[in-house]
UniProtKB/TrEMBL annotation:
Protein name: Uncharacterized protein
Top-level division of the source organism's lineage: Eukaryota
Pfam families found in the cross-reference section: Arm (PF00514)
PANTHER family: ARM REPEAT SUPERFAMILY PROTEIN (PTHR46043)
UniProt cross-references to SUPFAM superfamilies, sorted A to Z: ARM repeat (SSF48371)
Amino acid sequence: MDGLLDALREDEKSVLSALGRGNVAALVQLLTAAVPKVREKAATVLCLLAESGSCEGLLMSEGALPPFIRLAESGSLVGREKAVITLQRPSMSADIARAIVGPSGVRALIDMCQTGDSITQSAAAGALKNISVVPEVRQALAEEGVVRVMINLLDSGVVLGSKEYAAECLQNLTSSNDSLRRAVVSKGGLRSLLAYLDDSLVSLCVLPRLVHVLRDGSVGAQQAATATICKICSSMDMKRLVGEHGCIPLLVRLLEAKSNGARKARRGRCRRCPQAV
């Protein structure tokens, strides 16, 4: 096993492509070995295989799912991390998503959302997002406390990717379930979602682009930019950022525009954040 790991460090692509069904089956068997270090090393190799995207079907056909779920639930820290990362891609399959929900795999994923490093947290959130696509398991996810965990990720996730997965998971959970919609609202999810959207808009440099359109765009483009600013000013922080980016003088200038549409959008903008004017 040590020799295999050394070879992977030297030429990962060639080694992974050379591993056949027999080798994969043997590695899957080692996931249940009595020695924790052996389990960790087997999980590390299989995790690399899963991340390469070339052996997902082979892993599942060789029975890797149950031992990986057990490893995610009660293995060592390294074993749990590798198991969670490995489970993310296969969880896009509805059948595998259902299988993960059955034997307490969801609890393991939720735990890693709360305690894992940035990579593991993102993988766990991604797996939960994938699982939430399956309508019949959404209630089971909610009963495990996934709503609160996703809201917490929106508020304090280590990386933006984790927050994106959390937002998508909440979207899936609430797409056809009124009780889950109420649960998200009651736990403060709307505020967290709006803050996430604000952060996303800032990271995508939306405001500088809108300023450019307000300054140099056509009348129609200016109207669209004004309406967009009106819609995104849902929080005090976003209103402050709109002012800091110099939108207000440009919006005021549009009051003099001949277009009724521009005036109407501008008045709506002023009503939403008068303190920025």
